[in-house]
C-alpha cells in the first residue's frame, strides 16, 4: 500500500499562481498541498519574464487584455510594493517601418484607456532615425526574484500548506466525491497517493499534460522556447523602452536587480511548437524533458545558443551612440500562449472548471498581476 495523504485542495505547479492559490486558500482555512516537478519552486515563467507590471500600453490590439492588466495593477502594486521598481522612466516608441500600429492610433488607444502618454520630440539618449514617435508613459517593473523569495518564505510559515518537490503525477482517478492521485516522489524514489476533493492545475506550459491526466479538455496552446537576456547599460539604467508593434523589442529594468532585461519578438523565441503539448526536437532522452513532463531549460544540455547579440543590435539602433551595453547572462523558459492570441497578441488569464464533482480547475496565466483572478472562481 502506498502512503496516502488527504487535503482540501491539491495544487499542481509551484510558480506564482500555484503559490498564491495555496496562500489564498489557507487564509480561508483550507489545507492544501503543492506538488512541484522541479527541486525548487519558482524556476520557470514566474522568474523568467520581462517583469513588466503591465499598465495596458502593450496591447493596442486587445482592449480586453489592456483592461485586464489595468484591473489588478493597483492591488498587485500595493501588495508587492516592496518588490516594485517605481524609479525609472518607461518609454514606448512606434517603429517607422513595418509596425502594426502608428502614432495616431497609439495616442487614441492611450486616450481611450486614460493612461499617460506624453510625446517626447527630442531626447539625447535616443536615436530617432527608425522611430515615428516616442512617448513617456507610467509603467513599473516588478522584481521576480524578490517576489519569488517573498512567496517561498510565506509558504514555509503557513501550517496549512505542504509543499512537495520533485513530484511526478502518474495517475488520477475519481473516487466518489474526491480525486485520488498517484505521485512518484523522485526526492525519495517512492510512490505516494493523495486524496483531495478539488484539484488546481497551475502548471502553465505543462497545463495540457495535467488536463489530460485528469480527463479535462485541453486548452488550444502554442509554445516558444524563449530567452530573456540580462545586461547592464549605465547610461540607461533608469530607463525602459518598448518598441511597438510587431517584430521589435523591449529593454527595461528587471525589478530592483540593477540589470536590464532585453527581449525581442524576432529573436527571443528560439523554437516554436504549435501542438497543445510543448513538443520540441531538443527533448532527447538525455535531457529528461518530454512534452508531458517539461524540464528546466536553464541547466539543459540542449539549451539553444543565446541570441543576445542579435537582440542588442536590434535594440541598440534606437539609442544614441553614447549608450554602451555589457551582457551578463540569459535565462530560458517555455512561453505558452493561447493559439487565439495570435490574432490580437492578447494575454488573458483563463481559469476553467474542466471537471465537476470532484472539481478540477486549470489556471492558464497570461500576466503576473492577474493572480487575483483565482479569487473570483475557487
Ligand atoms: C518570456 C516571458 C516573458 C513574460 N513577460 C511578462 C511580463 O513582462 N509581465 C507579466 O505580467 N507576465 C509576463 N509573462 C507571463 C508570466 O510570466 C506568466 O503568466 C506567469 O509567470 C505564469 O505563472 P505560473 O505560476 O502559472 O507558471 P510558472 O511560473 O511556469 O509555474 C508553473 C510551475 O509548474 C511546474 N510544473 C509544470 N509541469 C508540472 C508537472 N507535470 N507536475 C508538477 N509541476 C509541474 C513548473 O515546474 C513550474 O514551477 C511572461 C512569460 C514569459 C515566459
Quick overview:
The protein contains eight helices and 22 strands. It has helices spanning 16-27, 63-79, 103-113, 144-156, 207-213, 308-316, 341-344, 373-377; strands at 4-6, 9-12, 32-35, 52-53, 84-85, 89-95, 118-119, 131-137, 140-142, 161-164, 167-175, 178-185, 190-196, 198-201, 221-232, 239-244, 249-253, 260-264, 269-273, 326-338, 350-355, 359-364.
Calculate the mean pLDDT score and round it: 95
Q: Could you list the spans in which at least 5 consecutive residues all have pLDDT below 50?
A: none
Distance between the ends: 32 Å
Number of helices: 8
CATH superfamily: FAD/NAD(P)-binding domain
Bound molecules: flavin-adenine dinucleotide
Q: What are the secondary-structure elements, in order, as H or E?
A: EEHEEHEEHEEEHEEEEEHEEEEEHEHEEH
Number of domain modules: 1
User: Would you count the extended β strands for me?
Assistant: 22
Shape: globular
Rg value = 21 Å
In the CATH scheme, what's the topology name?
Answer: FAD/NAD(P)-binding domain
Describe the model.
- The chain has 378 residues and is of the alpha/beta class.
- It has one domain (4-377): FAD/NAD(P)-binding domain.
- The protein contains eight helices and 22 strands.
- It has helices spanning 16-27, 63-79, 103-113, 144-156, 207-213, 308-316, 341-344, 373-377; strands at 4-6, 9-12, 32-35, 52-53, 84-85, 89-95, 118-119, 131-137, 140-142, 161-164, 167-175, 178-185, 190-196, 198-201, 221-232, 239-244, 249-253, 260-264, 269-273, 326-338, 350-355, 359-364.
- Strands 6, 7, 8, 15, 16, 17, 18, 19 and 20 form a nine-stranded mixed beta sheet that branches. A six-stranded mixed beta sheet has the order 10-3-2-14-22-21, sandwiched between helices.
- It is globular, with a radius of gyration of 21 Å.
- Flavin-adenine dinucleotide (FAD) binds next to helix 1, strand 11, helix 5, strand 15 and strand 20.
